[in-house]
Backbone:
């Protein structure tokens, strides 16, 4: 299979001598793995039942702490549990992604698809995105902003701050939607669009996504 050559290299990262890496606050997931999970977070959240085997395996492998497991399990729906897991993984060290792949034994089609994605999109630079000028200049709809909010995850605050929302406005959105990252992000995006008017364009969104370190190709998935 095309993806077969990728998995051994990832599994090699699971050497026990590196088992403490994930616990270090400064340890980060490889950028290409982080971008892959971000790009496909909504699809993954719809495909996976994370409570059954995935979260227990990641806890067993010291990728997740007990408190993080409890935080995931406290989410009211399976999709929200999956999204919470995908929010946590990028900050759990370089072992997090290969361990996540190992946890997908019952979802082999998802694992194979992720591995194919790694081979077909090897570290594409952030400016590799093509949107028509008519799309770049338009004001995004409610539906498009909702889909973007689902994709942003924990980076939503950095994006909205770059878009010009104040810290106080972000705090109000968080307070009004304390149980939903998606709800808080969407409320903030709608507020930005309302205050920006005709200047609240897709192009302006793309600039802030890049500034916050979010791969702007996420807009292609949402808009095209």
Residues:
């Amino acid at each position: 299979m095309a993806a077969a050559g990728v998995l051994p290299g990832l599994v090699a990262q699971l050497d026990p001598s590196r088992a403490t890496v994930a616990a270090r606050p400064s340890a980060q997931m490889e950028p290409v793995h982080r971008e892959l999970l971000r790009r496909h977070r909504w699809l993954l959240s719809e495909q996976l039942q994370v409570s059954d085997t995935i979260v227990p395996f990641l806890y067993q492998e010291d990728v997740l702490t007990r408190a993080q497991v409890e935080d995931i399990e406290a989410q009211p729906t399976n999709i929200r549990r999956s999204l919470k897991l995908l929010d946590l993984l990028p900050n759990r060290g370089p072992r997090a992604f290969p361990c996540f792949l190992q946890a997908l034994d019952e979802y082999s089609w998802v694992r194979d698809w992720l591995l194919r994605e790694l081979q077909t999109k090897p570290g594409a630079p952030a400016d590799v995105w093509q949107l028509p000028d008519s799309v770049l200049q338009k004001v995004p709809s409610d539906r498009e902003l909702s889909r973007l909010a689902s994709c942003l995850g924990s980076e939503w605050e950095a994006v909205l701050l770059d878009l010009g929302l104040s810290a106080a406005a972000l705090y109000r959105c968080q307070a009004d939607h304390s149980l939903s990252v998606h709800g808080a992000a969407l409320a903030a995006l709608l507020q930005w669009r309302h205050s920006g008017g005709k200047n609240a364009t897709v192009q302006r969104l793309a600039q802030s996504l890049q500034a916050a370190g979010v791969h702007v190709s996420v807009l292609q998935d949402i808009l095209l």
Q: What stands out?
A: DSSP finds 15 helices and no strands in the chain. Residues 14-26, 121-129 have pLDDT under 50 and may be disordered.
